[in-house]
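[step 3/7] inverse_fold.run input=structure_tokens len=330
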């Protein structure tokens, strides 16, 4: 397979999506101060991990995943808890891993599947298939071809990393990796992790964008696109699908990544700094975080302006004084 080039077509739709994504990234990057938002990076990493594991049938909720990562006790299956710990350790290396190294791929697979599979960090030796219940919907290539196929894929990436747009290169890799199915377990998790790592190498902002969450929302479309590519013998449909998801999620996360305007009050700025994204807080919890005692001052100076500007939402907007009211930073 020397000189192998993965088959795909650059369609008008792909070109349009690449242009749209690039424009949105430029706009958000220009208006953001990413170094000042390590909490956002962690929150979106947790979202990515939760969604990627949920796609593989891990039943832990987003809150439980967050608690595992924060070292809190969680009542759940030991295997699922270990999957979270492993994934967090693997995602922690996105910004430093060499995405063009098979050795690094195997090393991170070893981290991702630590204590969970016998061949952690090594390519499979047996035959593997993808099943829907008892029905086999796809048989992976024979194990004896895996090392050569993986070397050809990585060789293509190294050769074309400066000529193929990273958005396209990452999508092609994702599909080809799933097709080769190089490991006994963890192939989906590694495909999504490596996809994010390739994009983060191109634009660090992708450390703040939980692509996996968008894939989880459209999981059936994800698998349908992969199946269609298996039939077509080309990754074109998958490239279009994944670019659509990235284009969509950039709209959703843009407002949370973009720095607040200069007209935001000192009080609202302090409030936003102590709240984590997508985490519900009671008024008393926020009082404690801010070191305040007056609920009236909290509402007047902090919560009401933040809610008015759209930075914070109420879980029960129709019942502002409800005892069950929670406040969420968006």
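[step 3/7] decode complete -> sequence:
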């Amino acid at each position: 397979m020397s000189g192998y080039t993965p088959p795909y077509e650059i369609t008008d739709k792909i070109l349009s999506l690449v242009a749209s994504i690039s424009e949105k990234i430029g706009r958000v990057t220009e208006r953001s101060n990413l170094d000042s938002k390590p909490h956002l990076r962690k929150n979106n990493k947790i979202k990515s991990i939760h969604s990627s594991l949920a796609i593989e049938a891990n039943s832990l909720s987003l809150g439980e995943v967050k608690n595992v990562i924060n070292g809190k006790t969680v009542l759940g299956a030991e295997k699922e808890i270990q999957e979270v710990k492993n994934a967090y350790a693997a995602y922690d290396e996105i910004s430093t891993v060499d995405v063009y190294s098979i050795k690094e791929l195997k090393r991170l697979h070893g981290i991702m599947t630590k204590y969970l599979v016998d061949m952690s960090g090594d390519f499979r030796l047996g035959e593997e298939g993808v099943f829907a219940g008892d029905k086999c919907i796809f048989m992976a290539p024979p194990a004896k071809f895996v090392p050569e196929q993986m070397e050809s894929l990585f060789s293509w990436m190294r050769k074309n990393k400066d000529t193929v747009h990273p958005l396209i290169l990452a999508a092609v890799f994702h599909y080809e990796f799933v097709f080769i199915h190089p490991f006994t377990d963890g192939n989906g998790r590694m495909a999504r992790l490596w996809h994010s790592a390739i994009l983060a190498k191109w634009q660090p902002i992708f450390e703040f964008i939980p692509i996996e969450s968008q894939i989880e929302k459209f999981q059936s479309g994800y698998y349908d696109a992969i199946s269609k590519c298996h039939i077509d013998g080309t990754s074109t449909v998958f490239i279009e699908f994944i670019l659509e998801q990235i284009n969509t999620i950039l709209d959703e996360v843009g407002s949370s990544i973009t720095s607040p305007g200069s007209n935001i009050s000192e009080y609202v700025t302090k409030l936003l700094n102590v709240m984590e994204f997508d985490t519900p807080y009671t008024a008393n919890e926020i009082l404690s975080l801010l070191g305040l005692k007056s609920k009236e001052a909290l509402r007047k100076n902090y919560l009401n302006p933040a809610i008015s500007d759209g930075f914070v939402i109420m879980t029960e907007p129709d019942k502002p004084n409800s005892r069950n009211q929670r406040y969420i930073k968006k």
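[step 4/7] annotate
Strands lie at 129-132, 135-139, 312-314, 327-329.
The chain is about 60% helix and 5% strand.
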